[in-house]
Specification:
Length: about 525
């Protein structure tokens, strides 16, 4: 009898460890860091319950979901979490069923076999997990480790939901729990942004010049591009040879963005909306404004339609006649090269409409620089320089298409923000170093545009060294399209004789700083320059 009991105990132990291993398999198969972040919570749960059978029953639903979880991780290259919730909450029931249908048969077989096996062995799983009280208490207290880690990740952006999501995003099943909380927060932010965008979509605009044939106006938004790494602005590495060789380009050497993050920087460009310093005067968004003037509008993006990095940007795209995003959710799946946008751009140019306004949102020079360009563009020793040169190629392809079109056409290129490129600690990342606020901004106009508006073009050339911000992109594009609207400000256009001068307040991690009276501190943060007595 004792031998039988020992055999039963061994079977129960093997069954328990197998269930535990299967529940943890998605995390183990992802990254070592995900396992490191999630392990303390596993230990806490095991210590608090401390009964093998109870833990096995608790974990069995995770085992049943294992094929679906592994499939998701393979497809999206991340653990199910925020992205999963955003997809589910933005999908209909039929879409979810359609998604599951792709692996329904293997899932049913797995659930059947796993359930029958579990029923057979669950009675044999018994006993405590920890027999020593000291070990149990130590494991129960291990939740303090991720708590400290989440505080460290909070930084200036610091909500608990966001910190937890960032910390556990590769640690299943904690990624699902943290992702649910962050998804609720994201959807609330998205709803607020939608209200803002809806308010900015009501606009009275008119085309004040109907001569000269059809017009095509293109806004290209770059990503993470620093001005000081562009040859057109004096960088010694020739990263912008293509654009420099095109006639009709004017480059502006003193443009700064107001934010070091895409989610806040792009609304400034497309709607003159500064979320952290809202204006009392409501301005329409560019998509709605051009649509109100009779332009066909389109938004072509190599970024995501929804998620922590994108929701507050993509709300403006919903007002376009046509829109396309390379990914559904932030940080999910493999990223595409920016050249994948070009066929869609050419398709938009071929659309049957006289006037067109096209927004192209690139992935440009986002971190993991070596992944932002094909192998044929590995021409410089520095991967970041290669990414800038690849963006130069993309812009060149766009301009070739625009040059072949009839009519008074124009393009404005501006990056959302720059990056810290190894300064202070050797790391390249989104940061509030002064150089991250210094962005490339240049425009191109067709020969017929320059012939029709010679004085405006001369003004643009004379403004190339003017101190401006990304706020000036808005009315510059309005001028480029030959439009006007009630809130139009001539002094906020680069085509004006004298652009309005005002303090350039940018948003650092610590708050607003006057860019022109700020400098980097010892930790590479932009801070106010001490006043001279």
């Amino acid at each position: 009898m004792d031998g039988f009991s020992r055999k039963e105990g061994r079977v129960g132990s093997v069954a328990f460890l197998t269930i535990l291993a299967l529940a943890m398999l998605p995390t183990v198969s992802r990254t070592a860091l995900g396992l490191l972040h999630g392990l303390p919570l596993w230990l806490t749960v095991l210590a608090l319950i401390n009964r093998r059978r109870a833990v096995a029953i608790l974990l069995f639903p995770l085992v049943l979901c294992l094929p679906a979880v592994l499939y998701y991780q393979h497809a999206y290259r991340m653990a199910p979490g925020l992205s999963l919730w955003l997809i589910l909450l933005d999908s209909s029931g039929s879409e979810v069923v359609e998604y599951l249908a792709g692996f329904a048969l293997p899932l049913v077989i797995w659930i059947t076999v796993a359930t029958l096996t579990f029923i057979t062995v669950v009675r044999r799983i018994d006993g405590p997990i920890f027999r020593h009280r000291t070990m149990r208490f130590a494991c129960a207290a291990s939740f303090l480790v991720p708590s400290i880690g989440m505080v460290g990740l909070g930084g200036s952006k610091g909500s608990l939901a966001e910190s937890a999501n960032r910390y556990f995003h590769n640690s299943f099943p904690w990624s699902v729990l943290a992702g649910r909380a962050q998804a609720r927060r994201e959807l609330a932010l998205f709803a607020g942004a939608e209200r803002e965008a809806a308010a900015s979509s009501t606009v009275v605009a008119q085309k004040i010049d109907n001569t000269g044939g059809p017009r095509t106006v293109v806004l290209v938004i770059g990503e993470s591009a620093r001005r000081d790494r562009h040859g057109i602005f004096g960088y010694t590495t020739p990263t912008t040879r293509i654009v420099e060789g095109i006639d009709g380009v004017a480059a502006f050497s003193d443009a700064v963005t107001l934010h070091p993050y895409t989610v806040d920087a792009v609304p400034v460009i497309v709607a003159r909306h500064d979320r952290l310093a809202p204006s009392a005067v409501r301005t329409p968004n560019l998509v709605s404004l051009f649509a109100a003037a009779g332009f066909r509008t389109s938004w072509i993006s190599n970024q995501a339609a929804m998620g922590a990095d994108d929701s507050l940007v993509s709300v403006y795209a919903k007002y376009a006649d046509d829109r396309w995003f390379s990914r559904a959710v932030s940080r999910s799946g493999a990223t595409s090269l920016d050249e994948d946008l070009l066929p869609r751009f050419r398709s938009e140019l071929a659309a049957t409409s006289d006037d067109k306004f096209i927004v192209m949102h690139l992935y440009g020079s986002h971190e993991n620089f070596e992944k932002r360009y094909p192998a044929s563009f590995a021409i410089f020793p520095d991967a970041y320089d290669n990414s800038i040169a690849y963006t130069d190629f993309i812009l060149g392809q766009i301009l070739i298409e625009l040059q072949a079109l009839p009519g008074r056409n124009g393009l404005l290129y501006v990056a959302d923000h720059g990056l810290k490129l190894g300064e202070c600690d050797g790391r390249s990342e989104h940061y509030d170093i002064k150089q991250a606020f210094e962005v490339p901004l240049y425009m191109w106009t067709s020969v017929s545009w320059r012939e029709a508006y010679p004085q405006k073009w001369l003004h643009a050339l004379s403004n190339r060294d003017a101190p401006v911000t990304t706020l000036y992109a808005f009315d510059t594009l309005v001028d480029m399209g030959g439009l006007t609207y009630p809130q139009y400000q001539a002094g906020m256009s680069l085509f004006s004789e004298r652009p309005d001068a005002s303090a350039r307040k940018v948003h650092t991690f610590a708050g607003a700083v006057d860019y022109d009276h700020g400098a980097n501190d010892a930790f590479c943060h932009l801070v106010p320059t001490p006043a001279v007595p």
